Amino acid sequence: MRTLAGVEDEEKWLAEGIAGIQHNAFFMHRALDANNLREVLKYSALMLSELRTSKLSPQKYYDLYMRAFDQLRQLEIFFKDESRHGLPVVDLYELVQHAGNILPRMYLLCTVGSVYIKSKQAPSKDVLKDLVEMCRGVQHPIRGLFLRSYLAQVSRDKLPEIGSDYEGDANTVIDAVEFVLQNFTEMNKLWVRIQHQGPGTVREKQEKERNELRDLVGKNLHVLGQIEGVDLEMYKETVLPRVLEQVVNCKDKLAQYYLMECIIQVFPDEYHLQTLEALLAACTQLMPTVDTKIVLTQLMDRLSNYAASSPDVLHEFLQVEAFAKLSNAIGKVIDTQLEMPIVGAMTLFVSLLTFTLRVHPDRLDYVDQVLGACVVKLSSVPKLEDARAMKQVVALLSAPLEKYSDIVTALTLSNYPRVMDHLDDGTNKVMAMLIIQSIMKNDSCISTADKVEVLFELIKGLIKDLDGTNVEELDEEDFQEEQNSVARLIHMLDNEEPEEMLKIIYVVRKHLMTGGPQRLPFTVPPLVFSAVRLVRQLEAQGGDIAGEDVPATLRKIFQILNQTIEALSSVPCPELALRLYLQCAEAASDCDLEPVAYEFFTQAFILYEEEIADSKAQVTAIHLIVGTLQRINVFGVENRDTLTHKATGYSARLLKKPDQCRAVYACSHLFWVDDPEGIKDGERVLLCLRRALRIANAAQQMVNATRGSSGPVTLFVEILNKYLYFFEKGNPHITPSDIQSLIELINTEMLSDNGNTTIHSDPFFSSTLRYIRFQKQKGGLMGEKYDLIKL
């Protein structure tokens, strides 16, 4: 049993060992120079006796071993030259076996054995077999491992593999494989035995030391992977069964994990594919404490990369039924390893899905099968709370999106939404955002109501409050980003068939109406515009379309629009609702549906009267109403008079005089539409402008009363520009004298402003006057009209 000591003691023992090697190496070299074989063997045996120590850790023992190894290389050169020592290599091989201690004897025997094989005086397989058998004489784990490592090293270039100098009638590649397998088996037994050395209190230290030694064992598998002549048949019939037998039977967690990892990394991918069943069977027989998920994940990654390397190999996967075997093996591992954490199972499913998407991208049933197995596992857990497992589930759900670049494909997977149901609310939103980003990135169009239904079930975490969540607790910036993403998504839902598009609108509306007051202002507008787009599409196709399920009629769509905007106006969000009502009114006008357009205007006026109280919002709303009404030409005389009367009345009742003035002169456009069929009531235009002028004059007087000066003349100049506009359009009630009087009024107001004697100092007014002069100089009919205005 190797004694336990502190670092200082170990350093001292190492120094003593190195000193012993150097001392005896000095006399060995002197004997080499003198070609004194007896002295060479004596001092080399004494030098190698330093490796008999049990006091050093593997790392320190390696340092000592390398000092001796350097000397053995000099010794091998001496043994090769028979003229120096005078003995045939056969006799030398017998002679070194008389060394007193087993460890120096075996090192010398391996060194001479290497020379013996190279001399070809005996079949290499006999010498190798003799050496590997005699090495059993050293059963101390660390000393035995390093001895066998030395044997593997000196024999590597002397194996009878195909193409080597040692291949012949008596030597075949099978002999080389047999030698390496036997050496591997013995080394693995020694390596595993270390864990049974010493009391249980030092188990952690032993595990660390075993980790340091594992490469000595693994090198044998590397050699097996490099031997020329190990074809698939030999690998399947001889190599793999022997290696797996050792792996399974050793019953050691560290050895099983490391050796399975070596097998996967060392041997070719095509070998793994053809022996997949044996590999997977071994995985299911590993100790429960072995992290099998990493082993299986590495195997699937290797096979996935192999499949991606060339399309020509894909048929091999089908021949061996790789997916079915992997799926069954993973199921067995998850079922038998009851203590496997949920994150381990999810990692396996992610690897299996990645493998499936690479090897069988066209088999959606395979993809759905993996997702279904994931659902079964998740259903066995009361609640998924492990953040790492949640991350793996997100990776599982993201894989099909990345592979297919088309959410439509993912929507056909029946188990996809069932997996999402197991995510917590926060992760559900993250996944929903990933889905929307995938749609935006790939410019995917969702064109059927059924797929829209599935999609909105997937992103329900964004469009309604899930159980136990409160919108008020969410970060406002994040919430806005989420809802804007949903709004963009709605624009990606489209179908050229009006009947199907109407079904889509019904589905979207059903989901959006559950969103609550905070979400509707974001999600209702895109829905309204989608419906309006459908209205214009129907109008372009000649009107209503009678479908089998849901007839796409204009009135039905406008009813949906009215109900949808009504829900928004009750949020309350009156300014947005008013804008949408006006959009719908304009669409109804384009469809020549006067009663519908009138109803939308009525709703807009009701909102204005009852809900919009802020003065700035009222100003904006009035200008929107006036602008929309001016563009609409569907109304008869009675309805138009009613609406224009309302608009001008509300304009005159705004709080601030400047706002009143601007709204009233804007109403003048309601009575003069620059269109061949548009209304042209010049008298009412003049009435509006005169009314605006009176309001501007009142505003000027109020400023004069409160500030002691008449203030700027901007309102008068704006009205002057309206006069000029209608004058140019040919309104007979706007005369040059009216314009000239207004110019004189503005000049008077400017002169009276604090006794200012500079006329035309207002830039807006100066620009207007320059425009009048330009028109005068321009000539023609317009120039003649403007000549009547005297400046």
TrEMBL record:
One Pfam family matching this protein: Vps35
Alphabetized UniProt keyword annotations: Membrane, Protein transport, Transport
Keyword Cytoplasm annotated: no
The keyword Membrane appears for this protein: yes
InterPro entries: ARM-type_fold, Vps35, Vps35_C
UniProt name for this protein: Vacuolar protein sorting-associated protein 35
Subcellular location, record wording: Membrane
PANTHER family according to UniProt: VACUOLAR PROTEIN SORTING-ASSOCIATED PROTEIN 35B, VACUOLAR SORTING PROTEIN 35
Lineage: Eukaryota, Viridiplantae, Streptophyta, Embryophyta, Tracheophyta
Role description: Plays a role in vesicular protein sorting.
Topology with respect to the bilayer: Peripheral membrane protein
Main location as per UniProt: membrane
Similarity section: Belongs to the VPS35 family.
